[in-house]
Amino acid sequence: MRVLLVFLFIIISCGKAEKDCAVCKPPGGTPGDPNLPAPDPGDDLPEPDSKFCPPNKTNFREKGPFEIRTSTGAGYNLYQPKNAESCESPLIFWNNGTGATCLFYNGQLRHWASWGYTVVCAQTSQSGNGRNCFDSYRYVKGKTELIGIGGHSQGGAGAMACAARFQQAYPELVYAVAPVEPAFYMGPSRQNPNITGYKFVTSGSRDRTVPASGVSIGYRSLKGPKVHYSMVGAGHMDSQRWMSEGGVAFFNAALLEYPEAVEYFNNTMPQSTRWKKLE
User: Fold this and answer.
1) Where on the phi/psi map is residue 209: left (φ > 0), alpha (ψ -120 to 50), or beta?
2) Where is average pLDDT lowest: 182-186, 201-205, 269-273?
3) What is the pLDDT of residues 148-170, one digit of tens each?
4) Cβ atoms within 10 Å, residue 141
5) pTM score
6) Residue 3 and residue 134: Cα distance in Å, rounded?
7) Which CA distances in Å does 144 have to 57, 83, 159?
8) What is the widest separation between alpha-carbon atoms in the chain?
9) Contact criterion met (CB below 8 Å) for 106 and 62
10) Using CA atoms, how far apart are residues 106 and 14, in angstroms rounded to an integer?
């Protein structure tokens, strides 16, 4: 998986892939062979590794197949898929926005858990330095090598800071980061260009608190595979309505490399009325 992610970084960085995409994965055969035909829509694609809990589906706006179990620990809330002992549940660490609690994002976090992800939300409303996010890893450490990190507003900056902490401490893990309407200036942004892994940055088309123009300034400092989408119609306080769908699509594509999710994230989402690719 590590080799594949490096290869994808090269494709996206050079901009010479056949398809303009944020998370690229060839449909089969030798990676990067431009002569490979795309699979016929009617062809049966191979099933993904069954060890992963998230299903290889694309109805991301609908609730996933798992019921949810929630619990509270010392400084964090945990959202887990029930009856998932026989499969691997990737981790997602969430960083709250300024003054917000995990409860404010409850619907979004439960939606992600219903899709087979174990979601850890640090109980802090001052998350910009990423410390609480990183510290909560000790409660779920060792369950998977697949790590998603997200956050909203100040928590978007916190997601990047948390990713930097993770990358320094555990370089062997695989990361994907989703800063939502991120206030990059509220975190230690000097580390952001060094963060590896896919980065899905979002802004709200009606957000006046952290407008797209401000998000773009921070976005352009990021290196490696990245994309900036607009949540069409979103203000600063209702991004959950978009990220319930967008988060699952992104993590299924970037962490699990499901071909259907890659196609959905790169093409179906930005061509819909709810999303627009900005950069």
Assistant:
1) alpha
2) 182-186
3) 999 999 999 999 999 999 999 99
4) 10
5) 0.84
6) 25
7) 21, 17, 19
8) 54
9) no
10) 39
CB 95 within 8 A of CB 135: no
**Which ranges constitute the DSSP H helices of the chain?**
2-14, 106-114, 131-135, 154-169, 212-219, 240-254, 259-263
Residue 250: closest CA among 112, 97, 53, 99: 112
Q: What is the pLDDT of residues 206-259, one digit of tens each?
A: 999 999 999 999 999 999 999 999 999 999 999 999 999 999 999 999 999 999
Q: How far apart are CA 148 and CA 115, in angstroms?
A: 14
At 98, list the tokens: 């300024």
The amino acid at 200: F
Token pair in block for residue 256: 């699990």
* Cα 265 from Cα 268, distance rounded (Å): 6
| Token reading at 162 | 């948390």
